[in-house]
Amino acid sequence: MSLTTDNLIADLALKGEPVRRLRPPMIRALIWLAVIGAVALACILAFSNLAVFAKRASDPRMAVELAATLATGLAGVIAAFHLSVPDRSRAWAWLPAPFAALWMTLSGWGCYADWAEQNARGWALGQSSHCFFFILAVGVPLAALLAWRLRRSAPLQPRLTAALGAVGVAGLSAFILQFFHPFDVTLLDLGAHLAGVLAIIVLMTAAGGAKVRGG
Amino acid sequence: MSGGFNQGDNGQDRVWSGWMAAAQGGDKAAYVRLLADVTPFVRVLVRRRCADPSRAEDVVQEVLLTLHRVRHTYDPARPFTPWLAAIAGRRSIDALRRRVRQAAHEAHDPYAYETFADVGANKEVEASDAAQVLAGLIATLPPGQREALELLKLKELSLLEASRISGQSVAALKVGVHRAIKALRLRAGLR
């Protein structure tokens, strides 16, 4: 009655239908990013005030922060695609770390400077709820689309893969938010950004992890 | 079969890579050759983390099943051995974690059921009573849970064997046996 390994091999060989080979992870990541980038660009051109954005981005600190946010998003997505196939190094998991650290540091520093300069207003509510819901509204569909693409690879480490994808999606959502965020960031705004980013990471790591693993 | 294997053996790797590429294209003969040829290599990798031969063989089978499920992710432009070793390593770690989790939930207490000073008396008098009570409790379980418990705990089949016989998925069997034991504990008045 026991299922021997030899029997299993015979069974599997019988089920060995042709399969469609996956493209290399970098190509898959770039295709996904290109599609999302095209949709985001269309929305930005149609609905955002680019003149206000350009004025804000002319501040060197803001420009570096924006670049770090975008780099975190790109690196997270690229790392997730790499970790979704078995033989890629776990070191890919560290790819977004320096960009994320720079993003958080600059963002926090900007807030602190703002708070120190205008003490009372630093704690003002600003547009916190708008930021939080914007990041969720953009991030959740992006997370679902990414989980759907990653699921095809059937990753062996679904939670780590999903967590990196979530970091990527959170970075991209926060970057897109900047085009619709024509005001200085207060401390509570930063809190709302962080809450939105963390909410996406937690949601995708928990629920998305199961989805990715489901294969 | 090509016999010996070595992680650094490029010739061996090229052969496996070629068979895998053919298997991805639907060549079942190449696929069966590949699976048979890599199994000893997988067994060596698994036994580095799992000394118990019967458990190790279960993990070897899980590795082969995973290889089958993710075979579309192999890129023939890259070496085959690291791809296979990554799968074997991951499945071995999963099995190790499963064992640790199980061990954390199971306690060995040989004196828990002793009521008489004479150990033999406990065994003879209570064993048949306990068996009858247990059989009665098992009969009250839903069919799926009862089948999972009988196959996995009473007949001590592996998950794969039980899945094959019952037609239930491995996940359903795990859930079924977990719920069955929980229900039996409740009904027997144990914690």
Based on Cα principal axes, name the global outline of chain B. elongated
Rg of chain B, rounded, reads: 22 Å
Spatial gap, N to C terminus of chain B: 53 Å
- Average of pLDDT of chain B: 83
As a percent range, the share of strand residues of chain B is under 5%
Summarize the structure.
The complex is a heterodimer of chains A (215) and B (191). Chain A is built from nine helices and no strands. Chain A is mainly alpha-helical and 215 residues long.
Task: Outline the fold blueprint.
The complex is a heterodimer of chains A (215) and B (191).
Chain A: H1 5-14, H2 25-47, H3 50-57, H4 60-83, H5 97-117, H6 119-122, H7 128-151, H8 158-177, H9 187-213
Chain B: H1 10-24, H2 28-47, H3 53-69, H4 80-105, H5 119-139, H6 143-154, H7 159-166, H8 170-187
Helix pairs in contact in B: 1-2, 2-3, 3-4, 6-8
Provide keyphrases for this structure:
heterodimer; A: 215 residues; mainly alpha; 9 helices; disordered C terminus; B: 191 residues; 8 helices; 0% strand; disordered N terminus
Write up what this structure looks like:
The complex is a heterodimer of chains A (215) and B (191). By secondary structure, chain A is mostly helical. Chain A is built from nine helices and no strands. Chain A has helices spanning 5-14, 25-47, 50-57, 60-83, 97-117, 119-122, 128-151, 158-177, 187-213. In chain A, helix 4 packs antiparallel against helix 5, helix 7 crosses helix 8 (158-177) and helix 8 (158-177) packs antiparallel against helix 9. Chain A is elongated. Chain B is mainly α. Chain B is 72% helix and 0% strand. Chain B contains eight helices and no strands. In chain B, helix 2 (28-47) crosses helix 3 and helix 3 crosses helix 4 (80-105). The longest helix of chain B has 26 residues, at 80-105. The termini of chain B are far apart.
